[in-house]
Fold:
Amino acid sequence: MEKGAAIVTGGGTGLGLAISRELGRRGYPVVIASRKQEHLDAAARTLTGEGIQVLTAVCDVRDREQVKAAVDAAENRFGRVALLVNNAAGNFVVKAEELSPKGWEAVRGIVLDGTWHFSQEVGKRWIAQGQPGSILNIIATYAWTGAAGVVHSVSAKAGVLAMTRSLAMEWGKFGIRVNALAPGIMVTEDAAKNLGYADPAVQALLAKKVPLRRLASTEEVAFLACDLVTDRHPYVTGDCWTVDGGLWLEGFPNLRRFVDGELGE
Ligand SMILES: CCCCC/C=C/C(=O)SCCNC(=O)CCNC(=O)[C@H](O)C(C)(C)COP(=O)(O)OP(=O)(O)OC[C@H]1O[C@@H](n2cnc3c(N)ncnc32)[C@H](O)[C@@H]1OP(=O)(O)O
Ligand SMILES: NC(=O)C1=CN([C@@H]2O[C@H](COP(=O)(O)OP(=O)(O)OC[C@H]3O[C@@H](n4cnc5c(N)ncnc54)[C@H](OP(=O)(O)O)[C@@H]3O)[C@@H](O)[C@H]2O)C=CC1
Structure:
């Protein structure tokens, strides 16, 4: 029987692309949703070339109507949505006292509101259809440790963690699982640029802070993400799995410091 589709927000780049590929390998048609047509087209070409069924949906997760249209398109093409991965994010390093209202709103809007928009849109359809479903929210360990230099992202990811647990409690009776995954530091293009670790020398310093002494690959994080969101672990809900080489136990690096060039040995 054909599996329902998996929607992956931000599925055209970085971790989202790796998750889309791994879900495709596991037999799910994937719907990749993000703002930029060029990200989606490039990813769709790659995934299609690997034999994966792909639909692209240009969609700003901050806009409810665009989210609804993306879920409509997914159902029209694949019949049913089975999985949702809320992976889209925006982030940049900024001193809290200098963060503008629009800067706060941009990051909160993408991370917290975007996750809510997609979760509610698919959740209410699953409930009305009497269908089970599974949602995975990509967060970061600083949702519970806090971190300097990214107060907007920390606050939004903490909100997503609280949302994850609350929806798991509310929707478990409908057969809907809701979980979160907190990856360690990955070298993806926009994250490395926006957060100040594009330089390999900075990456090497960061890797020294990780108990396993290396940064994470998108592939290894994607593998765990797919284990969690698919039906491999059907009794897990409301949880957050960490895949960070042990970094959070050491304390999340102060992002202000390495942008300012102060990250020591
Ligand atoms: C150490 C690693 C672990 C970290 C864990 C988490 C990592 C991640 O989340 S990585 C994700 C990285 N990927 C991205 O950020 C990609 C998407 N990002 C963006 O599109 C932009 O960076 C965005 C978040 C700013 C959103 O873009 P957009 O909606 O187009 O917003 P604007 O460009 O109009 O800017 C809105 C507002 O924000 C201010 N702003 C933007 N960048 C900065 C900055 N670097 N520093 C300070 N302020 C910034 C911008 O100035 C606008 O405010 P106003 O000037 O007041 O209008
Ligand atoms: N990189 C890292 O070290 C870490 C990352 N994470 C998390 O992992 C996830 C993936 O990050 P990563 O792959 O590194 O970064 P990317 O920048 O590659 O991914 C972010 C994705 O979000 C999409 N996006 C941004 N804004 C919007 C929007 N308004 N609407 C729809 N899509 C949007 C972007 O696509 P487009 O530009 O086309 O809109 C992009 O594909 C994020 O949730 C991030 O917070 C967590 C811990 C560490």
In short: The chain has one domain: 5-260. The CA atoms of residues 196 and 258 lie 7 Å apart.
